[in-house]
Structures are given as structure tokens and as C-alpha cells.
Design brief:
CATH superfamily: Vaccinia Virus protein VP39
Distance between the termini: 27 Å
Structural class: alpha/beta
CATH topology: Rossmann fold
Largest sheet: 9 strands, mixed
Number of strands: 9
Oligomer: single chain
Helix content: 25-40%
Low-confidence stretches: 7-17
Radius of gyration: 18 Å
Order of helices and strands: EHHHHEHEHHEHEHEHHEEE
Number of helices: 11
Length: about 280
């Protein structure tokens, strides 16, 4: 099977209605932190406020991106050929499919997000190899039944899948039962599948992170940092790959021209990769 495509039940009108430029959006803020241009003044405003609270936040974002690249490359090298990336965000090269398909040209990658800006740029996510499959779904992580049903049009859930939840869970509050939600997705995966996850924490600089939580809340947005124990719960029942749940810069670090140094302290984002037995 080969090809590219975008699947959405939203019409252009309803998609436009969902575009809220009055509140910051995680995908657009991440784009700003990475030096992108697909964001609005409200995103930059909060981004600059967070930068004053934590001057190294852009470095943290780059470390998180590099973790995704290393994890996907490792799994592709080990034979994983299906990738489901939920909360894909605005395209920032190299995209996940470029990493996977550079190792395995026949890899199948399905991106999922529910931000109209990401939908508008989904074409950039779909320039994959002729041998592989690259799709974009307009869906919400909090609707697992619908999302998995849509994804099943491309992904064979009877075979191993790498589920990528990179820098997503800290934008979902506990009231949405985030651990149960992740468990539902993992439960849909075949044995031999993997969970790739990163999540912000306040363990290393609680005052700065608490101020960041308040800054998000003041603009009607959610930011939910979690402890090491809470992040580790996402991997319950799975076999963690070495070195376990660690600060994102410490997960198989590589010397790379575009990888910033870890600095004086750990990057306040936990990361882990685990296999479903």
C-alpha cells in the first residue's frame, strides 16, 4: 500500500470556525519555540512570558524534538514499520515520517491533530516516499474510539505500531483522566508495539513551572506538569527500554550539530520508550 492523504470530517467552514486566535495553542507555541512562523501574536506573547520565567525553554523544545528523532530512528532500525503520531503539531523538518522512511522507505505514518493551523499545513506532512504511506487525520486525542477507527483505515492494528505521544500529555488535565486515556490507546495496540512519550515536569524547578502553569491558566489554556512517578505510570504494563524514564536530553543522547548542550541541569521533560509484551 502506498500514497498520501488527509482525512477529516470537518468542512472548511467548521475548520475555520475552530481557528481561535484569541487564545494560545500548544502547536503554535511549540512552533514559535522552535523558530517557526506559523503562530499568532497571542502565542508569541505567552511564549515570551514563559521565556522570561524559564530562559532556556527554547533549548528544552529542541531537546524534545531531538528525542523524537532518536526514538523513531531506533524503532525503525529495529523493524517497526507503522507509526501513529498523536498531537503531531505544525510541520518542523525533519518530520517523523522523514525519520522513519529514511530508514524504512515502506514505513506507514499517520499523523493526528485537531488544530486548524496544523490541518492547513498538513500537505507538508504528506511528502513521503512512494513506497510508504503518509496520512493526516483531523481528530482529538480525547476521542479514542473515533480516532482509532479513522486510523484503522491506514494502520493495521493487528501488527506492531509505534504510538508517539511527544509533548502532548502535559496539555491534557487530570480531569480528562489522561492515564486511562493513554491506556486505551496502548490497549488497542498489538504485542510488539511501542509507546514513545515525553511529558513536562516541575520536579527540577517547581517555582518556574508553577508560574508557567499560572500563565497558561490566565489565558484559558492548560499546562499540567507531572512528577517522575506520574510519568512512569503511563508505561505501566509495558517493558521500558533502557535507560527508562529520564530527562529527555538523557535518552540516548547523540552528538549533533543542531543539538544544544544539556546545560547546568536536566531538561525538565521526562521521556521514555516502552514495548508492549
Amino acid at each position: 500500500m502506498s500514497g498520501t492523504g488527509t482525512d477529516s470530517t470537518a468542512s472548511p467552514a467548521t475548520t475555520a470556525d475552530r481557528l481561535d486566535t484569541g487564545r494560545p495553542h500548544p502547536a503554535r507555541m511549540y512552533d514559535w519555540f522552535l523558530g517557526g512562523k506559523d503562530n499568532y501574536p497571542v502565542d508569541e506573547e505567552l511564549g515570551r512570558q514563559l521565556l522570561r520565567l524559564q530562559p532556556e525553554i527554547m533549548r528544552f523544545a529542541r531537546h524534545n524534538r531531538r528525542f523524537m528523532e532518536r526514538a523513531v530512528r531506533r524503532l525503525a532500525d529495529e523493524g517497526v514499520r507503522q507509526f501513529l503520531d498523536i498531537g503531531s503539531g505544525i510541520p518542523t523538518e525533519p518530520n517523523l515520517h522523514q525519520i522513519a522512511q529514511s530508514t524504512a522507505p515502506d514505513a506507514c505514518v499517520v499523523y493526528v491533530d485537531n488544530d486548524p493551523i496544523v490541518l492547513a499545513h498538513s500537505g507538508a506532512l504528506l511528502r513521503g516516499t512512494e513506497e510508504g504511506v503518509t496520512r493526516y487525520l483531523d481528530a482529538d486525542v480525547r476521542e479514542p474510539d473515533r480516532l482509532l477507527e479513522l486510523a484503522a483505515g491506514t494502520i493495521d492494528f493487528t501488527r506492531p505500531v509505534a504510538l508517539s505521544l511527544v509533548a502532548l500529555t502535559h496539555f491534557i488535565p487530570d480531569r480528562d483522566q489522561i492515564h486511562d486515556l493513554v491506556g486505551r490507546y496502548v490497549g488497542a495496540l498489538a504485542p510488539g508495539s511501542h509507546l514513545v512519550l515525553s511529558q513536562a515536569t516541575g520536579d527540577f524547578d517547581p517555582e518556574a513551572v508553577a508560574a508557567g502553569v499560572a500563565a497558561y491558566a490566565a489565558r484559558g489554556a492548560t499546562f499540567a506538569p507531572r512528577t517522575h512517578a506520574e510519568v512512569s505510570r503511563f508505561f505501566d504494563g509495558l517493558e521500558l527500554l533502557d535507560p527508562g524514564v529520564v530527562p529527555v536530553g538523557d535518552w540516548h543522547p547523540e552528538t549533533h550539530a543542531d543539538t544544544p548542550p544539556t546545560g547546568a541541569g536536566p531538561v525538565p521533560i521526562y521521556a521514555g520508550v516502552a514495548r508492549k509484551p
